[in-house]
Amino acid sequence: MLRMGLPRGAVEQKMRMAGLDPAELNGPRQAATPAQEPKKTLKRKDSIRKKLHWEGKRHRTRRDSLWGGDAVEEAKEAVQISEESRAMLEKLFVKDLTESKKRNASVKSDGAAAAKKKKAMVQLIDMKKSQNIAITLARVKLTFPELKREILAMNPSVLSPSQVRSLMDMWPDRKEMEAINAFTGDMATIGTAEQFLMEVRSVPRFHEKLGCLVFKQEFPSRVHELRESLGLVTRGVYQVCSSAELRQLFIYILQIGNLLNFGGDDEQQGVDAFSLGSLVKFSQTKAFVGGITFLQYVVQSIERDVPHLAHFYNDIDLISKCSKVAYASLASEKNGLEAGLQNLLREAEASIPPPTASDADKEAMMAYNNTLMQFCKEVKTELYALQELLDKLNAAKAHFLEYFEEEDTEEELDVLLTHIANFTTEYQREHDKYQAKMKKEMIGLYSKFSPAKNPVKAVEPKQEPKAPHGKMHHGAKLPQSQHGHHSHGKAAHPHRTSMPPQIDHPQPIRQIHHARVLHLEIPQDDDMDEVSSTASMSPKTSAALSGGTP
């Protein structure tokens, strides 16, 4: 390595790190005699060193570089590493594995001792279940006997529905309950969850009672949501079926569709109706020119031909909300409430205090049965009212299918309503775009032909002095007829009438007057702009722009 040009100090340091004696650089040594002991090497066993990952350079030293030159050896002798620094380096950046092994052994011994202490606790149910039940019960500020009495009293505020469901999900299985019932040891040796289960084990069917409690907690909100949904869909269906504007709009679209498909107005060739599922095709059918869709054409045609139908969506404002309610979910929720009532009735019949129950438990269970039966009566009343609303919705559905001739469809009511809702949304979006485009074009025409850019001077008629006794002044000019001849009075031309007196317009002349008499020519960029500009205007505006009479 010295031959390669490396500094001697660096080579010696490298040899020390490798456990070699730097004195070997001076030449071979004599073999050690048996009386002489070999020098101990610096090789370290059972240790790891923190490496410095730098980028080393291996090249011939240059005399003018920092690492080379004649003074490099003198510099190395002047900056020797002290023994204190070496010891600090060993302490900080060298790890003795033997000490780590001893420390790990002591930690394991401590863990084993702690494990022995934990083994003193009796585990009756699954550890995960025990932990989750303990977390749920930690939020309750009641003792376990008080909590049991509140649950039997059907108090909906003692636990939240999520807490009750958590207890039900983590409830012990049959074998775990057998272990709990058979336990007769010290209560201090079992966990929080096991202590609660020990408290309620005297109450039969406690898991089912938790189900009745959560049903009572959620019943008011479920009934309210179902009632609102049934009423909303029923009103929305009747609103759609009774809308005269929607009916006229669909008939108008039917005529346009027959004209497009068959090229004429022959009713024998065209169809008599179209399905609600066809509404989605309107925005997917594009013209050959301009990329305009059939729906965009319908929007422009309605604005031109039947403008009173342009805002038909205001007449069916419930369609968006009621289309989001799944019809099948309404019947399913109604069936779920009825199933909950049956569970209540079965629990009321099965909740009979066992002979071994204490007087307090018997009294609590009797009160529980009374509360449960009273709640069953309330549930029956609400379910009867919900059934009436569901019958009204079914009648509205039958009327809807008959009105739109969709009796043979396999699609559910909410899907059919979604077709109308999506069509309404797309139509309203295209209509708003069309209105904004027309407004922009009218503003452009207004600014193009405004008096500010095309000033028109208003010529005031000269006032001729009037002669006394109705005679004309000698300097006054006679009015000319349409052919440029002077008028000679009524006697000369009895079939002609004199020109009416000119009316003085206020200054400046109003802009709207110019727009009505000018023959406008609107340059068009392409065919599509011509179609959209002229076809979309009203007849009066189109006639005025083309030079005709309004």
TrEMBL record:
Pfam family, one: FH2
Positions of region (Disordered): 1-64, 454-506, 523-550
Domain of life of the organism encoding this protein: Eukaryota
Basic residues bias (residue ranges): 41-62, 483-496
Domain annotation FH2: ranges: 39-453
Ranges annotated as biased composition (Polar residues): 531-544
InterPro entries in the record: FH2_Formin, FH2_Formin_sf, Formin_homology_domain
Entry-linked PROSITE patterns: FH2 (PS51444)
SUPFAM superfamilies: Formin homology 2 domain (FH2 domain)
This protein's name: FH2 domain-containing protein
